[in-house]
Design brief:
This protein is elongated. By secondary structure, it is mostly helical. Helix 14 runs antiparallel to helix 15, helix 15 runs antiparallel to helix 16 and helix 17 runs antiparallel to helix 18. About 70% of the residues lie in helices and about 0% in strands.
Length: about 675
Amino acid sequence: MDRSDSRKKPLAERFRRWIRRKKRERAIRREEKAIAKKLAAKARARELRELEKSAPSTDPIVPPPFPVQQPKTHDKVESVKQDQNQASPPVSPPLSVPLTGIGDYLKRYLKVRKAQVLQQRLAREARKIEASKGRERAKKSAFGVGSTDQSASDVRIPYRQRPIYFIKKYVRQAIRYRVPHWIAAMSPAVLFGFGVAMPSIIQSKEHAAASFARYQDAWTDAVHGNRTKEASLIGDRIISSPLADSRDLLSYFDTLVANGDYQKAVRLLIARESDQRDLVIAEYRFDVAERFVTMLEGSSELADLALKKFAESLNGPLSKEKEIRARKVLANAAAVRGDLASAMAILLPIRNADLVSRCDILWLSWNIDSGDPTAQLVKDAEDALQQIEGRMAQNPLIDEQEIAARARLSSLLRKDDEFLAWLEANSRIDAEGKARWKREFENLTLVREVRSVPLNPDAAWNRLTVILDREPNNPELIDMAIGLAIATPDRTSQKARNWVLTRIRAATVDPQILARTAMAAHAAGQWPLAIECYERLIAVPTNDPGVFNNLAALYYKFPPYRYEEASKLIDRALAEAPDNLNFIETKGQILARLGRVDEAKTLLERCLATFPNEWNLHNTMAQIYEYLDDKELGAVHREKLATLKKPANAPEEDRITFASKPKEPEPDSKSGDK
């Protein structure tokens, strides 16, 4: 193939052809070396035989003047005694040497180079033998028979093993593949890279930091100058920089809120949460939650999201100050929902770190327990009140949380006159603030009166209605009204009950009052009222799976029993929370009463480890095993059931009416009559 045609092939194909050619050449050279070694050995043996034949056999051996030194075992050439005048020139072996063990392609290749290569090898071997004989003659003339060691200078390195051969070879290859042309073409780009691009890359970090600082200064000026569009554009560039941190994100959030772009602001903070490092993720979540609470508190969805971020930030690491603030917000939200036990559990970890939280814990503990406060609670409240009064006397500023803590403890300890006197004499609180705190303290004293024993329900309701007319949406006052309406007979006010029933049966009912009434009626065991409230909640409508579960439980526990409707309701609850074991237990109870015993047993067995002391669960499992003729497991659940107390929300009928067992098929009478 013409070389010009080969150059037109792709570079990869030419490189593969070059590799294959090099492999063939190396194989040929290895074969040449093996053949030459065999030929050299034959030529040397032939030369020695000729020398032995030409040497005289009768010449006496003259003893040397010194002891004869024997040849070394590693000598390469044997010394031969002969007369210098009788030495004959080396006889060249014939060039016609048979080739063995070589392929056809090597034969064709060696046919051209064989004679030249073998002649050079034989000539080198002849020179080595001649040099060896010359050294022997020189040594014999002075010292007799000497060593046959060769000098390194007497050995000629083959041309193909010399460095100059490889240099010339690869230079020719480089020229053939136009490597110098490529290098020459790339030289300007390389010089440009080292002269211009590299300094720019080295200085890129400093340049980026300087540009980022300039953007921040311009951003600050635009925000302070109320140039909202300019601030928004600069903020986009800042948060796209790798140097931006969480503070820049929060500042950009403030800019977007100032522009009225609330949705983009919220999406920004939520999307960038995954970019935060583990060490700062809790701080970021807390800052995001505070932004949502303080700036977008009008949205209920954002309020729920803020509470979620506050709860996630407690997984830490979070500074103590921010942890206290987060726990206070979460505890206040739980108290507003009426879950006082959860509110107290949230505040317990910071009891010793924050005095206001300790006062709130004492207030919640008194509200959770029934009756008047215990002696220990009174002692702890007096100590906390003394510390609050000392801190407020030293602090020149007014802290609203400290005032609220002092008001609660004063109400708990019945120190009404002392608190009102301090409030009236405090010059740091304006007239509007004093009026507001008097109303708050009146609510606290009303709570105390409602919880006192004995209680006059109608008198307490008369006081409560005055405050309810003034604050109709106060959740604490609503809870007190529901408590007076749904309580034990000695603490129930008929006026309060009429007020609650009027509101839950109105055409436009308040879901908050409806939910609180349903939970209170459920806890008090007033099942018809609880069912009525849950049904109204479903019609509102609501997506709370707890409402579906509670109503389904009431449907299968109390008459009139509505198992099919209960099954549909619990399926809706499980669609929202498929792994909730409370819902799974309710589903199993309903299936057992529908006659689907095997399915019920599978579901209820999953709940045994989580609810080991659930009376209703053991009661149903005992009857299921007895129905399936497993007397041993049925007896185990009966023994456990005997140690448990039947709760108030247990089914009205202890016994379950299962579907009748399937009858075994009767033998065919015709098949037996043969």
